[in-house]
Design brief:
Order of helices and strands: HHHHHH
CATH class of the domain at 7-84: Mainly Alpha
Helix content: 55-70%
Structural class: mainly alpha
Number of helices: 6
Radius of gyration: 21 Å
Number of strands: 0
Mean pLDDT: 83
Strand content: under 5%
Distance between the termini: 65 Å
CATH architecture of the domain at 7-84: Orthogonal Bundle
């Protein structure tokens, strides 16, 4: 029986695939991307193969080198995983508005 992949692994794999696709589209080798993004070429390989996840700083640097907008690799990864990044959920209320409602309720309870 095959072992179930963890969510972290599937995200890493999807990110790596998106990174590889973007790098090839930009006609860059792993070596050139690494030099321009100021990271080790082995790290680029690890990212593309899903063995590592980048820091935000590294991801932004790689996106800059690839000519992508900040966060574009994350959006592409999310879409690859089947997440709907375009939809916006209706807020259910923030903690501060819920707390304000509770304070109002207590104030009315004490004035009765």
């Amino acid at each position: 029986m095959a072992a179930k992949r963890s969510t972290k692994s599937s995200v890493s794999d999807a990110f790596g695939a998106e990174l590889r696709d973007a790098r090839i589209e930009a006609k860059l080798t792993q070596q050139v991307l690494a030099e321009r993004a100021e990271v080790d070429p082995v790290f680029v390989s690890f990212l593309e193969n899903g063995h590592r996840q980048p820091s935000l700083t590294v991801m932004l640097s790689i996106e800059r080198v690839l000519g992508l907008t900040p966060g574009e690799l994350a959006q592409r990864t999310s879409r690859r995983l089947g997440h709907d990044v375009e939809s916006k959920r209706k807020p259910t209320g923030t903690r501060s508005t819920k707390m304000a409602g509770a304070r109002r309720q207590r104030a009315t309870d004490t004035t009765k």
